[in-house]
Amino acid sequence: MKMEKVPTVTVQKRRVRVVRGKPVFYNSPRIKSAKALLVAHLKQHRPSKPYDSGVRLRVSRLFPKGRHKDGEYRITKPGTDNLQKILKGCMTLCGFWTDDALVASEICEKFWADVPGTAAENKTA
To answer: pTM to 2 decimals?
Structure first.
């Protein structure tokens, strides 16, 4: 599956406020928007039944290249682990699997590219 827009916001950018002396965490409008974009796209590609065994997830994030070369690794923030958290959370919401703990193997790459987007592939063991 290929997604044209590349959400770069991460769940680490959650906000916090104090209510009655206790921290309450909530998602910023940017996180809500990124999740809505991902969920809308992912729903079209969910499997007919959720995976129930080990999954290999391969994701390529392709960012607008600007002054970089096409195919050059992107070595700036956000990190791949943070990008994966929001994606896997949305895949869980969409019913790809019952729990993202089923992801037993992950390959996540980020590149500068002529054509930006996100490409993902899942395979079961």
So the answer is: 0.81
